[in-house]
Amino acid sequence: MSRAFVKEPDGGEPPEPLPDRPISPHPNLVTPEGLRAIDDRLEELRQRLAAGQAAGDRAALAQIARDARYWAARRASAQVVAPRDNPSEVAFGATVTLLRDDRRRQTYRIVGEDEGDPPRGALSYVSPLARALIGKCVGDVARSGNAEVEIVEIK
User: Fold this and answer.
1) 26 DSSP assignment
2) Domain 95-154 belongs to what topology?
3) Which of 56, 71, 119, 155 has the smallest CB count inside 10 Å?
4) 112, 75 in Cβ contact below 8 A?
5) In this predicted model, what pLDDT tens digit does every residue of 9-54 receive, in sequence order?
6) Any residues with CB less than 8 A from the CB of 141 and at least 6 apart, and which?
């Protein structure tokens, strides 16, 4: 179809509403730090909303509104899980050090989905590796993809 027959917004029309961000079907477990991060994100969005309204930027407002709905839903469903003192097995909130087959050591903290950031050592509790580790103790072995990892420390 020729672009000549496609109606484009002339700036006076509101932009198409953005689809909502998908919400995970898993329980929204968060660490105390994760809850603070959600609160910080909501505050940041409130500030951006005010700035977007002052500027009359409808596209930005649509994105901010979508993000605010997501984070408000995540805040409402958040279940704070405090880390255990001296855990003897891998659990939510624990920090676990692994020894890989190639003798590399990697340390991860098991956290909520929105907190997960593997390059920074934060592993979502629903990730395959975290699921393989949860419930295991020091000395236990778990599968990680096609390899195995040994748990060498749990904090």
Assistant:
1) S
2) Chitinase A; domain 3 (3.10.50)
3) 119
4) no
5) 555 565 677 899 999 999 999 999 999 999 999 999 999 999 989 9
6) 148, 149, 150, 151
